[in-house]
Specification:
Elements (H helix, E strand, L loop, with lengths): L35 E4 L18 E2 L2 H4 L2 E4 L30 H4 L8 E7 L6 E10 L2 E11 L5 E2 L9 E2 L1 E10 L10 E3 L22 E4 L25 E4 L9 E3 L1 H10 L7 E6 H4 L2
């Protein structure tokens, strides 16, 4: 694509998240008080046109960000009660994910139940394939294999701004967005004109529509913020704005791109409650 890790312009406005702080106040009573506690929660690899900031609606799945109520236990009863059932044993660790060696597998969080594996054809190749795995009681179940593109020069385990390589590693997937309205994403979604892009890619292909849908890869990205957010915890020199986005038919600057239908499937499937991550790199590196 035409540029990488470039800061979007000013003028960003984001509407509040769907999560709200909730307080419950009980009336005074002569009995002992009852306490009710409430537990509350870019340049990417293309040129962003317009404001370059999230100025649209950001939605959040209610199951992810909604309040959870908890009340004090009731007073003891004189009637004997049955003992609590024995605790349920946790699910056994499933067999390793296909293609991942012991070092890479060890970096996958234990609570991750959805893993997007991006496997590059070679260290210096811009072509890769993507498989979504779900953890079940019988182990990891993989879906179809989707073709994809990565950065022009391939992969690196030490990504820097404009090096034209995608970072190797295991990263969480927390936030999404796009130029088009939310297609039913379970991840918090930012709908904004800041995702507009124009120009042509490395092979002369048009870039328009590449950011119709995106999922932020949490490499040098502040989790819980729009993909357009410019926060860079590792510093600007380490790049950022690295996304899963719609494929435009050619190499990217650092992102991973795949066909629109498959990206929409990811948006509708990846669930914050399942702690999704992406494992990405060339095949030899992932096998370590």
């Amino acid at each position: 694509m035409t540029s990488s890790d470039r800061r979007p312009g000013a003028g960003r406005h984001r509407s509040p998240s769907a999560a709200h702080r909730v307080r419950a106040v009980l009336p005074r009573v002569s009995l002992p008080a009852v306490v009710l506690a409430t537990v509350l929660s870019t340049g990417a690899c293309g040129t962003l046109q317009g404001s370059g900031r999230a100025d649209g609606e950001r939605t959040t799945a209610a199951a992810d960000r909604g309040p959870v109520g908890r009340t004090a236990p009731p007073a003891p009863s004189a009637t004997p009660t049955a003992p609590d059932p024995a605790p349920t044993a946790p699910d056994p660790a499933p067999a390793g994910l296909p293609g991942l060696g012991p070092a890479t597998s060890a970096r996958v969080p234990a609570d991750a139940r959805q893993v997007v594996v991006v496997t590059g054809q070679g260290r210096n190749s811009a072509r890769s394939h993507v498989v979504l795995y779900r953890r079940t009681g019988s182990g990891w179940q993989g879906g179809a294999t989707w073709s994809a593109h990565n950065a022009l020069k391939g992969w690196t385990d030490d990504h820097h701004l404009n090096d034209l390589r995608s970072p190797i590693g295991v990263f969480t997937l927390s936030d999404a967005g796009g130029l088009l309205p939310d297609p039913g994403s379970k991840l918090p979604y930012t709908h904004s004109g800041g995702f507009s892009v124009g120009g042509t890619g490395f092979e002369g292909e048009p870039l328009a529509g590449s950011f119709d849908y995106v999922i932020a890869i949490d490499y040098n990205h502040v989790k819980g913020t729009s993909p357009l957010d410019w926060g860079r915890p590792l510093g600007a020199d380490k790049g950022g704005g690295i996304w899963l986005h719609v494929d435009h038919g050619g190499p990217t600057h650092a992102c991973v791109s795949l066909p629109e239908a498959h990206l929409k499937e990811l948006l509708r499937t990846l669930d914050p409650a399942q702690h999704p991550v992406v494992v990405m790199g060339d095949a030899a590196s992932l096998a370590e």
